[in-house]
Amino acid sequence: MAKCIENNTIEIVPYECPPIKNITCTNGKKPVLVYDEYYCCQHYVCDCVCEGWGDPHYITFDGFYYSYQGNCTYVLMEEILPRHYLKIYIDNVFCDPTEDVSCPRSLIISYGSEVVTLINHNLPGAPELEALKKGKTLKLPYSQYGIKVVNTGINLVLEIPRLQVVITFGITGFSVTLPFQYFGSNTQGHCGTCTNNQADDCMLPGGQLVKSCAVMADYWPAKDINQPNCLVPPVLPTSIPEPPTLEPCNADSICDLLYNSPFVECHPFVSPDNFYRGCVFDSCHVPNPAVECTSLQTYAAACAQAGVCLHWKNHTTICASDCPSNKVYKPCDFTKLNGCFCPDGMKLFNKESGICVEKCGCLDPEGIPRGFNETFEYKCQDCICEETTKTVTCKPKVCPALPIANCTGEGFVLVNQTNPSDSCCSAYVCQCQINTCPVSNKNCPVGYKPVISVPEGKCCPQQTCDPKRVCVHKDVEYHPGSSVPANACQDCTCSNEVDPKSGLFKITCEFQQCKETCDMGYEYVKTNSDECCGRCVQTHCILSVNGTKQLLAVKTWSPAENKCEHYTCVKSGETLATISSHIVCPLFQQSNCQPNTIQTAANGCCKVCVEKEKGCKLASMKTRVSHKGCQSEQEVDMPYCEGSCNTFTMYSQAAAAMQHTCSCCKETRSSNRTVDLFCLNGDTIPYTYMHVEDCGCGHTDCTRAAAPPARRKRSFTLL
Fold first, then answer.
1. What are the pLDDT digits (tens) for 179-200?
2. Do the beta carbons of residue 12 and residue 2 sit within 8 Å?
3. Percent of the chain with pLDDT over 70
4. Are 60 and 108 in the same domain?
5. What contacts 671, CB < 8 A, 6 or more positions away?
6. Cα gap 153→326, rounded to integer Å
7. Residue 504 burial (C-beta neighbours within 10 Å; 0-12, 13-18, 19+)
8. Quick check: 458 and 438 in contact, CB under 8 A?
9. Structural domain containing residue 527
């Protein structure tokens, strides 16, 4: 060792390295030898390995186990003092609809100015892994800016070679491996402090320690990533979380396999306890039994890192390998990783390509392996895999001379375009340009519609006239089922039958069926005109008497029981109508008739007789009744007596004087009747008068003095 003493004097003194002491890594990993800061002496350190799987279970850098069900983006690891500018975030989301359990959806790795996201799009089914940078998919394998990303089939692996950082993410969960010489005692977050001391793993931002890492995890939301729904608890909880369940809740659980064959041979190298605890937790909180596989697979991966290769998947039927079709699952290979590898007899073309080949060769610009001396085309270049240089060389493709095509059809134009059979070369072809086609103005006849089509091999559209689904008669279209006025005395209809010549529907006709049955009172008469059928002509009137219909010819008729009713059948044009009439007889007084002279008149309705000549008889009269300024509203029937009686003067021998005998025409039978009289002052008064019912001659006194002659008045009496 060189020491600077004074006056630019350097003293070289021997430096004895202290003896190398064995140490025990609390995370169960093997210690590794590293040089001190002078790169002179070696000592053992424990590299930092943080693992997570299931829903999710963590093993910190120092080997402390805990489960945490946060639903946010958190700081998985960051440097306390930034030296290498590495930060790793974990995005946990709820992944079961019935339980509040979360799964790691993605890891976000920030290194310097580069940010790469490793994401699984399918939780918790078969993984759909993708690597993103600035939201765009990375084409794997990727190697730029000091970062490498490859896909092993079941995991994405990100490496930072300069810092010996290895990060995996996939179906088994995640793992972060950091060398102690770069990151020892300088980490914080969900993965702990990397001090080989579990006592300080549950550290909050600012350095405060808590007893529970599950409590600590709530206080590490990612501040550099926009997560508005992530809240930091305001105060530290005072309660201690309940201890985890130590027995599987599902009787069919595969967790017990971790303590049995085939995992027993790894127990001396890697303890299965933490992985068993995680498996039990999944058994009790996630109904999908396949989630338990992550604990077994993560333990198998840890065993592979320790050099123990476990063939365990044939001991269970629910843990699939999930390898792509071109690879097979192997529990481990020379890389000490379990995953998807090339089948026996094949090998990776190179570590970055992830492509399995049988023979070595070149990798073309698209990342496809090519055999030596294999020729291929790439972006219009002829390329070959040179065996001597083991590289691909390309030169521009030479196209053959272009033959000239002859364009003769309407609408075809000669153009130079990309050869359909070779996109790298041009060719002259006859191209259809419809705007050069002639215009067709063809009109179709009635019943046909224009149809435009381009025949095969042609360019210009051609018009044809296709028949419609109609009938045509005298340039008029008729739809099926409609009546067609085609032939006289026939009923014609448009049918659904197609005429093979015209393609239109046929018109079918039938002779009309004449209706020769007529209603009562009508007779069917054939005509000599152009009409197809005769017609019903009315010959009688129809008369209904007492509910019985009978025919009446053009004449007058009376029923036998009532000769006062007359029915006459009258013709008006071609229509016959019945007119009824009623005879009103004059007032007939049988008492005014001479005996044995009463008979029926010639009309068969009224009675007539030979009246008594000037005898005293009853006469009819109507008049208004007046009394003291009041009068009846209507005329009333006021019969009276009229006629002469026997009056004579003759000599009487017994009396020796002239004897006078007098009689007058007067009422012999009468009755009293009452009528209302209406007065001018608005009063209504009843008034009784005598109604004469019969007349006769009655004796009267003839000795009264003779009165002057007076006009004879009709006699009636008012009471």
1. 999 999 999 999 999 999 999 9
2. yes
3. 89
4. yes
5. 690, 691, 693
6. 10
7. buried
8. no
9. 522-582
Long-range contacts of 9-15, Cβ-Cβ distance < 8 Å, separation of 24 or more: 15/40, 15/41
- Mean pLDDT comparison of 75-84, 119-128, 294-303, highest-scoring range: 75-84
Judge if 390 and 478 occupy the same domain: no
User: Which residues, other chains included, contact 83 with Cβ-Cβ below 8 Å and sequence gap of 6+?
Assistant: 182, 186
Q: Is residue 231 part of a domain?
A: no
398 Cα distance to chain centroid = 58
Which residue reads 């071109």 in tokens? 326
Do residues 355 and 369 touch, judged by C-beta distance below 8 A? yes
pLDDT in tens, 363-413: 788 878 888 888 998 988 999 998 888 888 999 988 888 777 788 888 898
- State which of 31-45, 156-170, 226-240, 391-405 shows the largest mean pLDDT: 156-170
Tokens 């009623």, residue? 582
| Bond prior to 141 in cis (omega within 30° of 0) | yes
Looking at residue 52, what DSSP letter applies? Answer: E
How confident is the model at residue 75, as a pLDDT? 93
Residue 366 and residue 341 share a domain: no
- Residue that the structure tokens 């365990």 belong to: 312
**CB-based contact 232:219 (threshold 8 Å):** yes
The two tokens of residue 451 are 């149809």
Q: With respect to residue 16, please indicate whether it lies within any of the assigned structural domains.
A: no
Query: Is there a contact between 75 and 189 (Cβ–Cβ < 8 Å)?
Result: yes
Residue (of 709, 585, 691) closest to 639 by Cα position: 691
List phi, psi (to 5°) of 396: -55, 145
Query: Judging by DSSP bridges, how do beta strands 65-67 and 57-59 pair with one another?
Result: antiparallel
CB 671, CB 637: distance < 8 Å: no
**Can you give the CATH number for the domain in which 373 is found?**
2.10.70
Nearest to 293 by CA among 172, 158, 427, 455: 172
In total, how many domains does the chain have?
6
Does 276 lie in the same domain as 140?
no
Q: Do residues 51 and 174 touch, judged by C-beta distance below 8 A?
A: yes
Q: What are the beta bridge partners of residue 12?
A: 2
The verdict on 152 and 71 lying in the same domain is yes
Examine residue 262 and say whether the peptide bond preceding it is cis (omega within 30 degrees of 0): yes
- Model-level pTM greater than 0.70? no
End-to-end CA distance of the chain: 180
C-alpha span between 259 and 270 (Å, rounded): 12
φ/ψ (deg, to 5) at 244: -70, 160
User: pLDDT digit string (tens) for 424-478?
Assistant: 888 888 888 888 888 877 889 999 999 988 888 889 988 899 999 999 999 999 9
Is residue 493 within 8 A of residue 516, CB to CB? The reply is no
pLDDT digits (tens, 9 = 90+) for 260-312: 888 889 998 888 888 888 888 877 777 777 777 888 888 888 888 788 888 88
* Residue 241, strand partner residues: none
Element (H, E) at 657: strand 657-678
Question: Could you tell me if 55 and 96 are in contact, meaning their C-beta atoms sit under 8 angstroms apart?
Answer: yes
Distance CA 501, CA 133 (A): 72
User: What does the DSSP assignment read for 248-317?
Assistant: -SSTT-SGGGGGSTTSGGGTTTS--HHHHHHHHHHHHH-S-GGGHHHHHHHHHHHHHHTT-----GGG-S
Is 627 in contact with 675 (CB distance < 8 Å)? no
Q: Which helix (H) or strand (E) holds 183?
A: helix 180-183
- Cβ(283)–Cβ(248) below 8 Å: yes
Last residue within a domain, chosen from 339, 370, 396: 396
Is 29 within a domain? no
Q: Is beta strand 490-498 parallel, antiparallel or unpaired with respect to 626-627?
A: unpaired
Are 26 and 198 a contacting pair, CB within 8 Å?
Answer: yes
Helices and strands (DSSP H and E) totals, the chain: 4, 55
143-153 in b/e form (b: 16+ CB < 10 A) is eeeebbbbbbb
